[in-house]
């Protein structure tokens, strides 16, 4: 009986492994919770060293919030803005500064496209050429926020 149960368990395990590796599914790289928290704390450390008071949001590749920090003194209105910047970067797999520059240079009304936020302060994290998450910040100037997200994204490993 034990041999039959062991054989059944082994067959079930092989079948579930084969199903998980099926050609109908694709593995998706994504930032881990631990890495998201590390990146949020790293960004806050940079912000403190630059005397900034920001909200920092880290999202996964689907644009879902994984980590968030509102620094002491950051404006309440910046909470949603930082999350929206991270979400825009993640869902379109590009830094929000690209949208910002295109909107300004070509007078494009891309801010009306759902999910696109043409603003500084949103950047993606990559593993090789693959986007694995994003960061969004809000609470200071465009230049300060953009520099911070770019420097934080460079630190991603």
From TrEMBL:
It comes from the Bacteria. The keyword Signal applies. Residues 1-20 form the signal peptide. Pfam families: HbpS-like. Keywords: Signal. InterPro entries: GlcG_carb_metab_protein, PduO/GlcC-like, PduO/GlcC-like_sf. Gene3D superfamilies: Haem-degrading domain. The keyword Zinc does not apply. This is Heme-binding protein. It comes from Acetobacter oryzoeni.
